[in-house]
Amino acid sequence: MPLENVTINRICLHEVHRRSDAGGVVRPTYGTGLLALSQEALGAFRSRVVAAFKSTAQCMEMAIREYGDGSVITNGVHLVSAADPDFVQHSRVFADALANAQGSRQIPGGLMVVFDGTLGHPATSFFGLMKAELHEGFIKTNDLQARFVSDLFLSPKTKLYKIGLFVSNGLNPRPNLPDGWAAVVYDSAMTASQRDNAATYFHSTFLGLDVPANAAQQVKKFFEQTRAFIRATDLPEEQKVDLYNGLYTYLKLDRGNTIQTSRFAETYMDDVLAEDYIRHMRQQRFPDGAVAKDITEISGNLRLRKFKFPRAITLTGPPDAVRDLVTVEAINGEDGAAWTQITIRGRIEAQE
Questions:
Q1: What contacts 265, CB < 8 A, 6 or more positions away?
Q2: Tens digits of residue pLDDT in 215-265
Q3: Are 137 and 160 in contact (CB under 8 A)?
Q4: Helices 92-101 & 72-80, crossing angle to 10 degrees?
Q5: Which InterPro entries would you find in this protein's record (predicted)?
Q6: Do the beta carbons of residue 163 and residue 52 sit within 8 Å?
Q7: CA angle in degrees (0–180, nearest 5) for 242-224-254
Q8: Nearest 5 degrees, angle CA 98-CA 179-CA 62?
């Protein structure tokens, strides 16, 4: 979910602590005012948020599960319209909620960063909730010495933070929640191959979000629209075969728990084709962010790869076997006719 035209209006910090030795919740340390930043510092904060939500495997659009009184989305909608003093006071509820959601001493403390602003064209309101973990580092002094500090956060190379972003569609300032709002999560613990690393306490317990229930439909759309794109290209047949093989491999054999257009493009396409493909998928309104890989609606399609030729000749096989054993090449036949040469690295085992 790339963010465009982002403006940060207000930021407030609270500190959430690790649970006590006895396992109890430690009361957060609350900020007393809005965070006052220079234009350079505010630009750096904005750049961290924008960079996090570029099309990476560490973002996922979520379904809003909890939207009643006391929920994050309800409190956030009130926060966006609050005056500055009320913003600071009201934002404490998020620090309290995060402290309660962190159900184990194994979960470190950190800063609860509450912020709001506008994004998009035309601009619409959003609010964001970030947990930023503290880490150690050195600061260069004016006399070229160094000072060690243990409370750094939001360093660009040390992405120890998670962000929940709630974005209004701008059509109704007070909709029947959760209508009119979308949620997307960035978690530095996510990887393309191991989504289970993502901290569920943050997006589920704290934010009240779930992986979308329509993930199977999204994956089906990904499969169908990617095939349509490959079919419509003017690439040689051999390259189309490679792309089709890549699609089946990505969906059936790849061990990742999510799919994403940019990841598929980076893995199986050159830069020019990848750009065209990503543009095509955006035109089809497929999400830029990661989608949970639920293949239940296309499991039958993924069972076999099929090549159809004139007069009902068909070559069929499991995708991994086709990828490993079959080579397909377009050649010139008699009188310049288009023929296909198929090489199978194996002998005939049976005939019917």
A1: 273, 274, 277, 278
A2: 888 899 999 999 999 999 999 888 888 898 899 889 987 777 788 899 899
A3: no
A4: 160
A5: Nucleoid_associated_NdpA
A6: yes
A7: 55
A8: 50
Residue 155, amino acid = S
| 8-44 pLDDT tens trace | 999 999 999 999 999 899 999 999 999 888 898 899 8
Average pLDDT (325-350) is 82
User: Any residues with CB less than 8 A from the CB of 119 and at least 6 apart, and which?
Assistant: 3, 4, 5, 6, 7, 126, 167
Distance CA(284)–CA(225), nearest Å, equals 8
Q: Is the pTM of this model over 0.70?
A: no
Distance in angstroms (rounded) separating the CA atoms of residues 217 and 273: 25
Token pair recorded at residue 255 = 């061990």
Share of the chain above pLDDT 70, in %: 89
Token output for 306 = 């099929």
Tokens of 109: 């403390």
Question: What whole-number distance in Å separates Cα of residue 327 and Cα of residue 148?
Answer: 59
